[in-house]
Design a protein that fits this description.
This protein is an all-alpha fold and about 60 residues long. The chain has three helices and no strands. The protein has one domain (about 1-60).
Length: about 60
Amino acid sequence: MNKWLNVVQSIQIPFALIPLLTLVFKEKVMGTFRIGPIVEVSFVCILTFVKLILMYNDYVW
């Protein structure tokens, strides 16, 4: 049960993070609360790293 729960969560994480970060990057949506370019690059790197880890875990299982 725990293995399947981890697999389902690893599939759902990108579907939650990608739209969230896309909206935070847009100045039209966030206005003055839009994140800066340094934070944007770091978020993209972290998201890529997390996705690679999840893809590796799905491949190994």
